[in-house]
Amino acid sequence: MNLAIFFDPLPEDPLAAAPAPTTLGAYASRFVDTFPDWRTADLALIGLDEWRGSAAGPPAAHGANAVRERFYQLQKGTGPIRLVDLGNLRPGLTLEDTYLRLREIVAALLENKTIPLLLGGSQDLDYGQFLAYETLERPVSHVTIDARVDMAEHDGATAEDTHLRRILMHEPNFLFCFSQIGHQQYLVPPGVLGTLEKLHFETLRLGEVHTDVRQAEPLIRQADMLSFDLSALRWPDFPGYYPASPYGLTGEEASQLCWYAGHNDQLSSFGLYGYRPCRDEHGLAAFAAATMLWYFIEGFYHRLGETDFQSRRFMRYAIGLPGTPAKLVFYKARRTEKWWLEVESMADSSVKRIVPCSYQDYLHASQGDLPNRWILTQALLG
After folding, report:
1. Prediction pTM value
2. Which of 137, 144, 304, 324 is deepest in the core (most CB within 10 A)?
3. Is 173 exposed, middle or buried (CB count within 10 Å of its CB: 0-12, 13-18, 19+)?
4. Residues 347-367 pLDDT 10s
């Protein structure tokens, strides 16, 4: 597939001079004159400048280009860094056309096992990111990190305010599970979280992330795709979105969540949305977004391929439930000490799924309590 027809080259190389040999700029193949060979890459950066889904309209400058200037000056981390920069996506004639372009591009990258890194534009673009997964012909899991839960129903609501509802209601339904992380209760309309609960989806409030960011790791570990609205960060750490808020994730928490995403063996696409450079006077937000990308890539090159639960890399624990012959089976990775839980469908014993969980889930089970993650997964398995 010729992806080049969808992209504009970078207006100029983000690095005016030759990059230092130890920086990311020395390792990334960027679309300035020649379209890079994405088929040999592990990761592909895609700049987005589509804002028709946002009530605030387009910013005066291209956000992805501003982030690139900071990103390519960062020092190379672990791994060979096989990264290409495909340039900036040409928006379609309509917003729907842009979604379909994203679908085609992301699907091609997924088929090639190249992870797309989507940067810029409003968060409703994750609908195009999501549509690409129809080609996999299997259930997929989605995680979004956002200060709000974008499921508006009122007249005049923008695509940015309704994109999550559109994802959840999409037919054919190939979404297995969904998790919402970092939302702020006073920004979420009454009843929305109850709707997610009825659908057996998980949520993790901002306060819970502040208390222990590690609570988000099992949720992110089960995701195939992640959509990160940068307005989930507090304004002092990320002055690059509208409207401004003094509350939200810290830069350190956001980077940790990105590392979890990169380290997830299952995750195959990653989007950072919502950065507006016109509100970033000193480039602080561009640097924060660049650092978040860096942590995702660092996590990716620390992946261990922990997927064979029958191998010696895992310890197996079976816990009997009081009063029943049933047992809960847990797996613990010897190296990383991460935990998984095996859930067998009560409706069809041939249907099983091994889902990420926490050590706390194991402790609850050892005390005779069913972990909430088992209950939710059982409901999703039907």
Report:
1. 0.96
2. 144
3. exposed
4. 887 889 999 999 999 999 999
